């Protein structure tokens, strides 16, 4: 399996179900645009509730969708019955985060039994225009035999 | 002036006014707990709208308040008429982010004419119990002669 | 000018002269393999003097050439008479750093008047085999009107 | 055991033996100044072989000793028979790295079965004067049942 390949319906459903349990993603208005092997794209439409003091998207929102995009990119490559946590991430905010929506991709650059490393990128999109607004890197940990949901 | 010293009412008002214009902070329910020279503390009460898939605070919320705490810590030391932007930050999520609320501090470790570096820490607080849940570092840029608000 | 384009002989000479003044690069045995616009490649041959405790290249050597590759990638795009300093970098050591030599590339992903952001990558190379051993990101600052050499 | 407590002679010897096998540390001229529980201090005397183009210590040397200080800080807390690898680190170079020697400390801020997080700090020291020149964070992984030496 190569990064960017299609995934099985089971893997896609597992990522979408987990994403749907992230209260913050729903509350911010983020949605999954695409799930591929080791490559997940999220979108976050602009709203005044997501801004910083100059009216751009707040770095916290930009980071939140970058982190989730990377987490689910890693998760597509994890074995059944495992769970994903972010160990750490780093993000450079390279241009003001403006646009009708932000698009964040997480792309696996190395996967291992325990740790997975992702590249994170965020674009501000308005009509046909895409501007690279953030770039980062993320370290994920795979928790084997750990359900990806809270205890019932 | 030492890090942690009291600030003038003008500096405190400038930080609080700017924070109040961050749509995301209001929407998440974050508030400023304390403004000191180069040291700002924010709080974020727990809500289901802030969670990740296991029911803990989402790293995006943890990061958002860490980033704002650092940004305003730097801003207290910036000259009148300037504005603050985050260049980049890095955060390690060292324990599951649980508690009645999160408390984030940004603490300036180096300030310069252009760049300011902050230490970021987040605790999960329940009653008397405080657990260190995240630690990070942040680089800020001071935009001189740039109003800290959107054009009217 | 696009990233990866050829540079003028003047720009190449400026980068190579500055590199030659980095005592550490000479001492480690690193050399410039290629200078392109916003894209610089360095090589570091294996020696026992560069190892960590398991006999792999030490993360310090891997980081040193990644940092210099990024710094000179940025420097190719800076105006005449300016100088480059690293503000910060982050590096993930994704595989044991082994090989006949390491090859590090710095690639500019955003350039601005003050700050420039680079992607850093390091490969371990043995014969035809290249293994990705480290990936990072770097923030550089351009010091305008500052000679890139110590005071005489 | 608290961070900064004295260590047993066995733990100190284990750290010093491993450090002595790091070819790079010897080659750069670095030495261990102190080993405490989760807190290790290294020193690196100034030499022209360690410089960048302005004559300061190169960020690669600063990073190398910060990385080793953190690695051995973590290693003091690891079980017998295990080994340490750096997963990633991030460093801000907050002032020009000048002085008779650099002093780097690694301090554990969270230790777990698999991952350990350290704070990294480097000072430039000249006589009685100490200047904070770099600050960073590091993620380490503990390889259980893995000898801390190359295969014989």
UniProtKB/TrEMBL annotation, chains A, B, C, D:
It comes from the Bacteria. PANTHER family: 1,4-DIHYDROXY-2-NAPHTHOYL-COA THIOESTERASE 1, MEDIUM_LONG-CHAIN ACYL-COA THIOESTERASE YIGI. Coiled coil: none annotated. Belongs to the YigI thioesterase family. GO terms for molecular function: hydrolase activity. The lineage of its organism: Bacteria, Pseudomonadati, Pseudomonadota, Alphaproteobacteria, Rhodobacterales. SUPFAM superfamilies: Thioesterase/thiol ester dehydrase-isomerase. InterPro entries: HotDog_dom_sf, PAAI_dom, Thioestr_dom. Keywords: Hydrolase. Its EC number is 3.1.2.20. Residues 54-124 form the Thioesterase domain. It catalyses: a fatty acyl-CoA + H2O = a fatty acid + CoA + H(+); a medium-chain fatty acyl-CoA + H2O = a medium-chain fatty acid + CoA + H(+); a long-chain fatty acyl-CoA + H2O = a long-chain fatty acid + CoA + H(+). This is Medium/long-chain acyl-CoA thioesterase YigI.
């Amino acid at each position: 399996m190569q990064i960017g390949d299609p995934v099985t319906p089971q893997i896609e459903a597992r990522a979408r179900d987990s994403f749907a349990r992230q209260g913050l993603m729903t509350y911010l208005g983020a949605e999954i645009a695409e799930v591929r092997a080791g490559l997940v794209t999220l979108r976050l439409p602009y709203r005044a509730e997501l801004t910083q003091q100059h009216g751009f998207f707040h770095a916290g929102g930009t980071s939140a969708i970058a982190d989730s995009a990377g987490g689910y990119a890693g998760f597509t490559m994890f074995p059944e019955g495992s769970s994903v946590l972010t160990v750490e991430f780093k993000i450079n905010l390279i241009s003001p985060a403006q646009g009708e929506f932000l698009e964040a991709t997480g792309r696996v650059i190395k996967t291992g039994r325990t740790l997975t490393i992702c590249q994170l990128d965020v674009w501000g999109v308005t009509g046909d225009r895409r501007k690279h607004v953030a770039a980062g890197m993320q370290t994920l940990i795979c928790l084997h035999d750990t359900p990806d949901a809270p205890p019932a």
